[in-house]
Task: inverse folding
């Protein structure tokens, strides 16, 4: 009877007894989750998505999943956590690295031990892995174009050609893959804009995803350029909402969106704070990069790899989770060869759609991951 039950559970996942890697009769899967600092809101949303998916998996299969979680913004501490989990014994690992090149040793060790590893938010150079994230280059292009189009609409073509203006760029960490890719997407649309409007200038500040440092950077820009500032592009939500917008307000440079002096601000993440800023009229555009979806897909891929083995993982050219009913606005999912990434790696990217807010969804959308995560904590929507 137990063998029959296990067979039924495997069939429900589309797994055959021949390919399943989980030992027959095993009732528990133990995975490690090494992530950014435990206070990081974006990765709390990511983890919440993971927990939702684990709950669904357990209800569907009857197999318990124990997730051991540790978080740090220190890459050496992340390595230490990973080594502790390797020594303890785990069936798989979720890894969201603060510094991808530094964590190459973790993926190599997982490969050596034949432990499935799914990276998310940023892939790790080299090594076999599944990496789950929305296309960051596309995010930069999407929100960048919206910001630049808005600047043209506010200032006008003649003003930009004859007067110009200053645009402020806020980057987090220039060695981080997702930062590099988001910024590349922004540059893809910004460079043609600069050619068209050569009197427009810009300055780049690296503020480490830190609101205080971003505030200081924008304060310095205001002191130098004042009303010549015409737009602010932030690579993440914390620097834009926590740094740029307060700086504009403090300097008396915050004008409503219908004002000819309005300075638009755009961000990438989709946190609760960004959605709230958008509803208040403080933030112009954000990319909702689907942290709940990322958390779900990452652990779904990890559990599939543990259950079925590497050879059964979906590959480029195949359809990925077409029957998913948890993230319809993020579909269709895409599978990309890891060797075509920068940096390249052995394996595949499982990717999903970014959403431009407020164009794809409004700031009060229940699909927005920041809004949904806030609801999970408070049992009411942020605007209620």
Result:
């Amino acid at each position: 009877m137990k063998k029959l039950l296990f067979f039924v559970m495997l069939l429900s996942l589309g797994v055959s007894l021949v390919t399943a890697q989980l030992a027959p009769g095993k009732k528990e899967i133990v995975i490690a989750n090494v992530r950014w600092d435990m206070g990081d809101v974006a990765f709390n949303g990511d983890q919440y998505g993971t927990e939702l998916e684990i709950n669904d998996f357990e209800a569907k299969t009857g197999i318990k999943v124990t997730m051991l979680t540790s978080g740090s913004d220190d890459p050496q501490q992340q390595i230490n956590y990973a080594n502790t989990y390797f020594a303890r014994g785990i069936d798989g690992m979720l890894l969201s690295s603060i510094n991808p090149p530094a964590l190459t040793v973790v993926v190599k060790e997982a490969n050596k031990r034949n432990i499935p590893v799914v990276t998310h938010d940023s892939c790790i150079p080299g090594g076999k892995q599944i990496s789950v994230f929305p296309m960051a280059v596309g995010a930069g292009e999407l929100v960048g174009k919206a910001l630049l189009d808005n600047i043209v609409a506010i200032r006008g073509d003649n003003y930009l050609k004859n007067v110009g203006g200053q645009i402020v760029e806020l980057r987090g960490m220039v060695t981080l893959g997702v930062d590099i890719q988001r910024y590349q997407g922004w540059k893809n649309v910004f460079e043609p804009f600069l050619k068209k409007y050569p009197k427009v200038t810009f300055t780049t500040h690296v503020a480490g995803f830190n609101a205080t440092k971003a505030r200081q950077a924008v304060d310095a820009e205001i002191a130098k350029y004042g009303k010549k500032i015409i737009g602010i592009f932030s690579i993440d939500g914390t620097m834009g909402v926590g740094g740029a917008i307060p700086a504009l307000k403090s300097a008396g440079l915050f004008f409503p969106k219908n004002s000819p002096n309005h300075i638009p601000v755009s961000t990438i993440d989709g946190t609760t704070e960004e959605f709230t800023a958008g509803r208040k009229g403080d933030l112009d555009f954000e990319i909702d990069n689907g942290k709940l979806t990322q958390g779900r897909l990452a652990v779904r891929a990890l559990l599939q790899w543990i259950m079925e083995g590497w050879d059964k993982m979906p590959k480029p050219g195949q359809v990925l989770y077409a029957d998913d009913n948890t993230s319809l606005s993020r579909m269709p999912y895409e599978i990309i060869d890891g060797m075509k990434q920068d940096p390249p790696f052995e394996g595949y990217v499982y990717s999903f759609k970014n959403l431009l807010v407020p164009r794809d969804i409004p700031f009060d959308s229940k699909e927005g991951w920041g809004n949904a995560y806030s609801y999970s904590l408070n049992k009411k929507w942020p605007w209620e």
In short: Residues 123 and 131 are 5 Å apart (CA to CA).
